[in-house]
Specification:
With 846 residues, the chain is α+β, with helices and mostly antiparallel strands. It has five domains: 129 residues, Agglutinin, subunit A; 133 residues, Agglutinin, subunit A, CATH 2.90.10; 150 residues, no CATH class; 139 residues, Phosphorylase Kinase, domain 1 (2-Layer Sandwich); 239 residues, Orthogonal Bundle (Transferase(Phosphotransferase), domain 1). The protein is 21% helix and 27% strand. It has 15 helices and 48 strands. The chain is globular, with a radius of gyration of 31 Å. The termini are far apart. The structure holds 2-acetamido-2-deoxy-beta-D-glucopyranose (3 copies).
Length: 846
């Protein structure tokens, strides 16, 4: 009886099992088991419908390949099985043998491609997983952690998906790397590969066959140095180095983001992000991004700086070698021999991608001071760095041969200082900012951190903001700000990441959705635009304070119907600013476009704008030195974000005191993006026939020739900085001799009387020692020649690092000439407020 029951129980369980297994096989189209197969035209679809596996023909080709692609975007093939063995017709099929080998068969049942595994499986099953991995495993093994018998992730094609790895599987002894397609029509092995090179430290290298084509800097414990931050803001890189593997992979910060890394057939790597709205792929980063990204472009012992006219320059202590000439630069050699008897010193170079790891040695536990001593003691040691930024500052990497493939980076973040050995006789008077001698670093590991911490903190803050932005934009979908007719939500927008907005190209194809409010609702919030609610009036029309039902306050800019700011500027501003999230940029909440009305709705800034304080004899006293420094730093951070960290490079073009708003704690926020321009990734300057901006803040190349670049904003920032510390307006400035504030500052600076620049209401002794430094920075920013001006990145590091040496400014623009708009320079009374501070637009006759 008992036996019978047991039998019955087993039979019952078995039936249920069979039943469910069958159902599973019927429903799940993501697996193949022995006996089953898929033929050309059939597909496997992963469980959450993200990936498909099947047969395809790339581009113009008629040949058939087995591959995996995104279901939502079938042209994005992420893996190909028979890269070099196409099937000529559509009679191919994929089966799995009884022992677990995948077999790709042609019409004559000949094997075209096989997974080639030697271990036999009892119950093999092939499955397409939702991360794009096509795997073979034992169906009856319930052991989830057991590794797959075979997986497509072990033999990548040209695309690295999240969860895929590059590098070495030490346990099984094979390498994983990407190999580009030969052409868009031909997935066979191309010339280019992307590998994780492991030589003491790891770095990512693109090879053209066996020749290095481009490389990142080495892994520093947190990221690969030398990669600009933009892609880093989208994902976290992960390097695993243990006895099983030495690999690189990445995870996206925001999981719904679908992204990939692709090596294309011309040797470029591209980070691509799926854009839901346009249902296309946005390329967010390309490498090598310019000539300096090409391996060894300038030869040995040189720095490649794409922002210079002569992009190749020898390292300090080196001179061009005999094969170098004007047209082809071929590297540098030491200009005088190293002393090697204690007469050598080190020059610090920062903001660069480190030299390639050739002829290096690494000691993980040495401090920077020990590293220096060790390097000095070995005559063949050419340079050293602190190799690990996360390991508490220890780690010593030394170079013994030529320094190869150093480039200047546009963004300073996460770069490591390299200390290059030079004979003491080479150390002349050198005050250049990037290659200044740094005696303070001698035998002391601390200063490296004083530079790193602010930079890393800045990066963290930016990351934080981006994450908050993404969260907030998800949350704000359908959130009813005014509790009126919010018709659309603020969208997280990945469009136009790399789109260059050409002059004259006004209507952008991809438009950003922004909350749209009805005129009735805005009118109600501002009590029918009552004059008591008016905050001020600018060139474009009045600004009102509004109150939402919940009590929150907003600022409402109602463009006057006659205003010069038309529909295009409004849209420009709305689209631009809706995408930006930074604590030093004013936030746009929505807009209202109805009949003739054009209205922008912003967060409310209780302290209005900077000019109201700065140029008012009484209110000025409220701005003590600490507040002024905070304002200067905030503006610098906001501009740095616009220039370097926002997903679009943005040039504000109309930075001035009245466009700096102050919140209740006197934190500055940059506003008014009506004139701003988006720059594409490699666009460095542009020309316009329509000069917009404000006299006194415009650099000469722009005011006179219409040429603008990020350095135009740097000029305006310099003017603003000098205005903030002196409390004087640049234009309308009157003082014996000088025609404007810049000229005045220059005279004071050259006569060694920089302290005279201090606003007399600042009776703050503490600020006295630091003030000349601010004058210096301000003057560097307003130099006549745009190339001489520092980038905002340099400015931020000068502001944050009080000990860094500053270079001497050259004479500023407009120092001793009447400033442009003649009528304005005739104004000789001190101006107090921004009401007249109109923005000008000149049409240049051409
Ligand atoms: C699962 O597989 C792994 C790897 O083969 C093995 O180490 C582990 O002991 C297995 N676990 C179980 C419960 O069988
Ligand atoms: C790759 O190397 C080949 C020579 O092997 C060369 O002809 C080709 O120009 C290189 N490609 C690039 C993009 O540099
Ligand atoms: C200097 O360093 C190199 C590379 O590590 C080593 O081969 C050489 O022996 C060292 N020379 C001295 C004098 O220590």
């Amino acid at each position: 009886m008992e036996k019978n029951l047991t039998f019955f129980f087993f039979f019952y369980c078995f039936s249920i099992f069979i039943f469910f297994t069958n159902i599973h096989l019927l429903l799940a189209a993501d697996t193949i088991t022995p006996g089953g197969f898929i033929q050309d035209g059939d597909k496997l679809v992963s469980s959450a419908q993200r990936f498909e596996l099947g047969f395809f023909s790339p581009g113009q080709s008629k040949s058939r390949y087995l591959g995996v692609w995104y279901k939502q975007s079938p042209e994005k093939v992420v893996w190909v099985a028979n890269r070099n063995n196409p099937i000529p017709d559509s009679n191919g099929s994929l089966a799995i043998s009884d022992d677990g080998n995948l077999l790709l068969l042609n019409g004559l049942k000949g094997v075209i491609w096989s997974s080639n595994i030697s271990r036999k499986l009892e119950n093999p099953v092939a499955q397409l997983l939702d991360n794009g991995n096509f795997i073979v495993k034992d169906n009856f093994s319930s052991n989830v952690s057991e590794s797959y018998l075979w997986q497509s992730f072990d033999s990548p094609t040209d695309i690295l998906l999240p969860e895929m790895k590059l590098g070495r599987n030490l346990k099984a002894g094979f390498d994983m790397y990407l190999t580009a397609w030969r052409s868009a029509d031909d997935p066979s092995y191309g010339d280019f590969t992307l590998k994780l090179d492991i030589h003491l430290l790891s770095e990512m290298v693109i090879y053209n066959r066996s020749v290095k084509f481009a490389r990142t800097g080495p892994w520093n414990g947190a990221f690969y140095g030398g990669i600009p931050t933009k892609p880093n803001l989208l994902f976290v890189p992960i390097v695993v180095n243990n006895q099983d593997e030495y690999t690189y992979r990445y995870e996206s910060f925001n999981n719904p983001i679908v992204m990939l890394l692709k090596l294309n057939n011309s040797g470029m790597i591209q980070w691509q992000v799926w854009n839901e709205r346009t249902t296309g792929w946005d390329v967010v980063y390309i490498a090598p991004e310019d000539l300096c990204g090409h391996y060894r472009h300038c030869g040995a012992n040189s720095v490649c700086d794409i922002d210079k006219t002569q992009i190749c320059e020898c390292l300090k202590g080196f001179a061009p070698n005999s094969q170098s000439n004007q047209t082809s630069f071929n590297g540098c050699v030491r200009h005088s021999q190293l002393d090697c008897k204690g007469g050598d010193e080190f020059i610090k170079l920062d903001g660069i991608k480190l030299a390639d790891l050739i002829d290096v040695s690494l000691n993980e536990s040495m401090s920077l001071a020990e590293c220096e001593a060790k390097c000095l003691n070995n005559c063949s040691c050419q340079a050293y760095i602190n190799s690990n930024v996360t390991g508490g500052g220890s780690g010593c990497l030394m170079w013994f041969g030529d320094l190869i493939d150093i480039r200047k980076l546009v963004e300073n973040r996460g770069t490591q200082d390299i200390f290059i050995r030079v004979p003491a006789s080479e150390l002349g008077t050198n005050s250049s900012v990037q290659s200044s001698t740094d005696n303070k670093n001698k035998g002391n590991g601390k200063p490296i951190w004083t530079i790193f911490i602010p930079i890393l903190t800045l990066a963290m803050v930016i990351l934080g903001f981006i994450v908050t932005y993404v969260r907030r934009s998800i949350r704000s979908k359908g959130e009813d700000l005014l509790q009126f007719d919010v018709s659309m939500g603020l969208d997280d927008d990945h469009a136009e990441l790399t789109e260059v907005k050409k002059p004259g190209e006004s209507r952008s194809r991809k438009e950003v959705k922004l909350p749209l409010f009805s005129f009735a609702s805005v009118s109600a919030a501002t009590e029918n635009f009552s004059s008591t609610n008016m905050l001020g009036e600018g060139g474009f029309g009045p600004v009102y304070k509004g109150t939402l039902l919940k009590g929150d306050q907003i600022a409402v800019k109602r463009l006057s119907k006659r205003s010069g700011q038309g529909w295009e500027e409004l849209k420009n501003e709305a689209i631009l600013i809706a995408k930006l999230q930074h604590k030093n940029l004013v936030r746009l909440l929505g807009c209202c476009i109805e009949q003739d009305e054009k209205i922008l709705i912003y967060e409310y800034m209780s302290n209005k704008s900077l000019d109201i304080f700065l140029f008012d004899p009484e209110k000025r006293k409220l701005l003590d030195w600490t507040i002024r420094v905070r304002i200067i730093e905030g503006i610098a951070q906001g501009l740095l974000y616009l220039h370097e960290y926002s997903r679009l490079r943005i040039i504000h073009r109309d930075l001035k005191a009245s466009n700096i708003l102050l919140d209740k704690d006197m934190n500055p926020k940059i506003s008014d993006f009506g004139m701003a321009r988006i720059f594409g990734g490699d666009e460095l300057q542009a020309n316009t026939q329509r000069i917009v901006g404000t006299y006194g803040y415009m650099p000469p190349e722009y005011a006179l020739e219409g040429v603008f670049s990020i350095k135009s904003d740097v000029f305006s920032f310099g003017v603003l900085l000098l205005e903030i510390i002196s409390g004087k307006k640049n234009t309308g400035f009157y003082q014996a001799e000088s025609v404007n504030l810049l000229g005045y500052a220059w005279d004071k600076w050259t006569n060694d009387r920089a302290l005279d620049m201090m606003d007399p209401v600042l009776e703050d002794a503490a600020s006295e020692h630091i003030l000349p430094r601010y004058v210096n920075i301000g003057l560097l920013c307003v130099q006549e020649n745009a190339e001489d001006r520092p980038s905002m990145c340099d400015v931020v590091s000068m502001l944050m690092n009080e000990t860094a040496t500053l270079s001497s400014p050259k004479q500023p623009a407009f120092a001793h000439v009447r400033s442009q708009g003649g009528s304005r320079s005739s104004v000789t009374r001190p101006e107090n407020c921004s009401v007249n501070d109109i923005t000008v637009t000149i049409m240049e006759p051409r």
